[in-house]
Write a structure and sequence with these properties.
One of its GO terms (biological process) is protein transport. Its main location: membrane. Belongs to the small GTPase superfamily. Rab family. One of its GO terms (molecular function) is GTPase activity. Keywords: GTP-binding, Lipoprotein, Membrane, Nucleotide-binding, Prenylation, Protein transport, Transport. This protein is α/β, with parallel strands linked by helices. The protein has a single domain, classed as 3-Layer(aba) Sandwich (Rossmann fold), CATH 3.40.50.300. It has a six-stranded mixed β-sheet, with helices on both faces. The relative contact order is 0.15.
Amino acid sequence: MCLSDRFLLWRSHHLLRMGSSNNIQAKLVLLGDMGTGKTSIALRFVKGQYFDCQESTIGAAFFSQILSLNEATVKFDIWDTAGQERYHSLAPMYYRGAAAALVVYDISSTDSFTRAKKWIQEVQRQGNPHLVMALVANKADLETKRQVDNEEGELYAQENGLFFIETSAKTAQNVKELFYEIAKRLVKARAARRSGMKLHEETQDRGRRLFCCST
């Protein structure tokens, strides 16, 4: 870890300990088929590591990481869910109450893309209007084996109001960019909610003043 990275990490932990109002603690869940590289994405982001033979997740795995933006410090509590069908029933326990969800598919597998669509539909049915969700096309390093075109994934994401990005956990392509974009969107969403709350409170206050002063 270089000196600048150490400083940013220290600064992020310091700000969180201070309890600043610009701190966000966000639950993020990774969803998708087995073998799409969900764990590899998490490991690459959190520890900068990649393993060619990554063992399948059993149930779920937990990671945490802090990102320091100009606007806020975001602490991600990352839940990496198992992709095997036998663990599907456990998934709602992790994505309910999540601030963000990454639905991952493998660009060399049409089946994983079809499954990703089902995950998106399932999560959207929970009805969380503030959920930040991304469709992640992983294994971009397997271009010669591609089965799902970039345009196909991007179009589906646009139609469903999702952020879309192609990544490679193996080469680290766009992994940091993915989480920084999610962090930025979380900050923006919180600011919008706060503005809405202030507007609602101001409207209520004006209503009370008019009621009190009416004759």
